[in-house]
Design goal:
alpha+beta; SH3 type barrels; five-stranded antiparallel beta sheet; 2 helices; 17% helix
């Protein structure tokens, strides 16, 4: 599953980032495989998305979110 396929409010762990240049930028910001993210906002018409991780809010382009493979966490009651 890709990051841009999550629904607002869903959580996931980052599995891998396919684009080398984008991976380097995210690693510099502390986003690496195993990082837990929560999708907070999705702009309409394939606009940017915003997610949080480690008390940080980040907004990225939808095209960049398609480069991030995630493992969606199931909600446990």
């Amino acid at each position: 599953m890709l990051l841009n396929e999550l629904k607002v409010g869903e959580q996931a762990n980052i599995l891998c980032i396919s684009d080398d240049v984008f991976r380097t930028k995210l690693l510099e910001m502390g986003i690496m495989p195993g990082t837990r993210v929560t999708l907070l906002l999705k702009a309409p018409f394939r606009g940017p998305i915003a997610f949080s991780y480690q008390n940080t809010l980040l907004s990225i382009r939808n095209e960049d979110a398609q480069q991030i493979a995630v493992d969606k966490l199931s909600i446990q009651a």
